[in-house]
Amino acid sequence: MKALLVCEQREGKILDTSYELVAFADRLGAEKVMVLVGKEAPKVDGKVYLADVDKFGEYNPDLHKQVVLEAIQKENPDYVVFVHSSYGWDLAPRVAAALKVGQVSEVVNIVDGKFELALCNAKLRRTVSPKGARAVLTVQAGAFNAVEASGSAQVEAIEVAGSSQLQFVGYEPAEKKDVDLGRAEIIVSAGRGVGKKENVAIIAELAKAFGGELGASRPVVDAGWVAHSHQVGTTGQTVSPKLYVACGISGAIQHLAGMKKSDFIVAINKDKDAPISEAADVMVVADVLQLAPVLMEKLRAA
Amino acid sequence: MPSTQIYFLPLFVIALVAFCFSCYQRLQLVAVGTSEDRFDRPGERLAGMFRYAFGQERVLARPYGLNHFALFWAFMLLLVANVSFLAEGLFSGFTLSALPAPLHHVLGLAFDLVSVVALVSVAVALARRLFFAPSYLGNDYTKACSGEALLILALIATLMVAFFLLNAAQIALGAEQTLRPVSGALATLLQGMPQASLELVASASWWVHAVVLLLFMNLLPRSKHMHILTAIPNCYFRNLEKPNVQPRESFELGKRFGVSEVAQFSWKDLLDSFSCTECGRCQDLCPAHNTGKPLNPRRIIHDIKVNLLENGVANAGKKQLPLIGEKAEGTSCEDALWSCTTCGACLSVCPVLIEHMPKIVKMRRHLVQEKARFPEELLNLFENMEQRSNPWGIAPSERGKWANLLGDKEFVAGKTEYLFFVGCAGSFDSRAKQTTVALATVLDKAGVTWGILGREELCCGDSVRRLGNEFVFDRMARENVAKFKEKGVTKIVTQCPHCFSTLKNDYRQYGLELEVLHHSELIARLVQEGKLPAAKGVNLGKTLFHDSCYLGRHNDTFAAPRQVIEAATGAAPGEFERQKENGFCCGAGGGRMWMEEQIGTRINHDRVNEALKQQPDTICVSCPYCMTMLEDGLKDQGAEKVRVKDIAEVMAEAIN
Amino acid sequence: MKVLVCIKQVPDMESRFKVNGSGDWYDEADLAYRMNEYDEYAVEQAVQLKEQLGDAPDVTVLSIGPDRVGDALKKALAMGCDRAVHVQDPDSCRKDPWQIADIIASFAKGKDFDVIFTGMQSQDRGSAQVGVTVAERLGHNCTTTLVGFGFADGVITAKRELEGGLKSVVKVPLPALVTCQLGLNVPRYPTLPNIMKAKKKEFVTVPAAELLTEQPAVATEKLYPPVKSGSAVVLEGDLAQVADRLLGILKEKTTVVK
Known about the structure:
The complex is a heterotrimer of chains A (302), B (656) and C (258). Chain A has 302 residues and is an alpha/beta fold. Chain A has helices spanning 17-28, 53-56, 61-75, 88-99, 197-210, 218-222, 253-259, 288-301; strands at residues 2-6, 9-10, 13-14, 31-38, 46-52, 79-83, 103-111, 114-119, 124-130, 135-139, 153-157, 167-172, 186-190, 213-216, 243-247, 265-269, 282-285.
């Protein structure tokens, strides 16, 4: 079994998710070959087809498709594997369509040789298997722990001809000035339980340590402790981050309605029976003001 | 006085024609409105007219109303005096003296006395406006001491003074002596004057009186004193239904929805606008106005009038003054319309039964249904209501979850007497769920059988209706009514006054005529029937009862919740300064629960601060919205130690 | 200009899902359906483009599925699409993305749609394939995950959302297909007059069998609920231990804490 791993880079730098593809191929027990439109090959043992990004463009799916097809032509792999990312979900169906093969999107696990996928907000799971001899896969980011970037690739340059009408104009960095809770992957929210305005800064620091954004419940916003753009709930933002940490939030329904779709919810509250416990995956019974410094220290150490 | 007639007749005719023309113009403007049946049940209408217009019931609800009452009845009597005055001026030989002497004498005495009353009333009114004007008399577009008000008062005073001088001069000239103490006293002062001077005084007074009278008459239809003409019919044509029940709409292609132009109001809405005399009582009670919002119910009515005067008459091609838009005289701003909590204080206080709030809802209907323009928070609400039939968008399957521990609680016709319509808050909100469970406990204890619809229960639609989303409400109402019929429901108990009022009043428009009870009514009844213990003496410390607008003002249920508290604690609850009909909203009605309150101060803070003045231990409520708003308000004010309890919880504590 | 919007009707994600009798899909009974959220952005963008171009573009909205998808199509019409095409398929849930894309491509072929809008993915399957596959089949230019859309002189300027808040800008000449991400615009709340008008708009139904040419490429083996995590794990006691256990759980259960 052979897997062609389509690695990903941004502005010359290999993305870490590429190493997750390697982990996936290892789980699959497949021989791996890599292909990348970039500047330098990933640090892995094995063959890497490298197409020069200066020539094929930072984002040019029509040309990148040709590059991947060329590598497939050379390697004849059983699986062509992408990360389920803005790069992967954009490119994979193009490759699948060109090959006229099936695509399996966002694999989270391999169960009995079948690919496991989540559906309906992860309320259900299913296993699928592609019908043909070859298949295109995309793998959920984070689902397979990345292998260490150590090794030396055997690089082979790849050249293809092709043209595209798409014109990549450039990147636009994330807007810094305003929080966009709707897009945040991690939200750490402060509730009235933090006590006073000054303490919100501690929660903001905790949010930063998690690499997330600061959210807040309505009373905290109403009290003027933080700006309205941070408000989570019925009259604020409805959010669904991958991780939601509710600090000192009792869980009024207006707040619950705004955050219950989060993938994973941690509540830190002195009251074990606060309504937030109904929604939480983990209920930490503690004073968040005491726990936060300990957590931050461990997060920074990690 | 034949020469008088020569000059007066044409003057009178001109004045009368001008007056009739003005009235006709105003009537024509009222007729611009859409049709609405306000002609049914004439007996009931007449009775109400006597009560509110002639009896001045609501005017008298405030102490100063006595002054208006006096002036009103003085005017009613003087109407006879003035008709006879005009007739004397027009037809030589016409005189009240022709009446049988006793009647003539009584009339003379009455006119003399009520004129004094009128003069005193005018003086009091003037003094009030000048020296002790209440804050609600003026506002941003008119002063308590407006030129118009002063002019009218001056004209009335002039009429009275001229009337006395005329009578006095005539008495001094040797006219027939009747019992007219004031005129008589004035006559003795004039006694020494030469006859010619007396005749001049009489003639001048007559002319002053005549001219001022005609002027006054012509001022009426062109000023806020139009209410002198329209208030009485306005009381006759009042809404005999609950005015917070908005009319249904039909949903057809090509129809307009709601009101965006003044001509889309009903003729009664427009009559309302001419009946307002700017007394400011609605403004005084309005929770939005009191907390710095741009809404002033009186201003809404005023703007409708100004807009009607500007746009109403046929003026094709002329630029229309917008009814809704940038705040201006004649234009209501959207923020004002969205500030209304539909608490109904304006409706219940208006002396001439103007219906302010329904007009606001009509304009909201336009904004929501034709323009899809509303505060952004409402988008989520509307979608949640449409898709999951609850304001938070929680899965409908969660609705009956609270009852899981109680066993099978499904409503089955014949087996369960009451359908317990739990409502969205009672089903989903963790705090309100405690009330739900408490009520269930109380009903079980009293031996009342009840059942729920569980996941089949839908939202009653109160919020969407008050927010103007009639299309969505219509569907919810039809589905609910069909469900009640399908399930064979005959009696319903609710724990939320909004469900209660909607099921009881609004759903009648959909043919639902069931016994709908708010839990306060049912519990009070069970106490009366001896099925629940009275006076158990639960100690809640100092209590205060906060009236829910939809239970109290909108459904006149003031006693039941108080009785429940008294039964449970052994003592009547303490009262807010503003209570019952004058109660102050918690801030959540009319869909405000789902909106941010960014303008002015918070309504719930205002209410909580009012409570805290009395240092209560427990504030009792009968509504889940009030519960949320007051609890939040108390926390914001750092007064968490004051508990908020629903009356069902209070009773549940008593029977435990 | 001719515009096509492809929408899907999906169950309300708030629902409780049960596996159906044959174990290959979820039980559709008791589920409430709505328009796929991503597709609402697609419809809105199509209608905005129509408005920008002075009402000139003719906007067709298409959906595949059983009779109930008519509701989603009517909403799209009420939002401002001109005509609806209902590809009738009572068994659409058993079609894989490859076949769904095939049906759409067969429909669109030869109809010269200048711009095609689709959602970036569906809320139930989330495969994020159909749009791109349709573009490949039709030979349209394509870009995905739009959070910004501009159109001038026959060229779409698309703002794509990448990871971590980063965005990129791409210019795409027509004919083009774009897939829409949440937040691209603010989907309008249909006004009542437009809901009424929608009832009179052209509504065509086509049996899926007339358009389908491909066999499924991926087979669903089994559908099942995820292993229950149970109710909340309660952590209390020594703060350092609590913090360690919490971070341990987060590393295991989430993909964002490393």
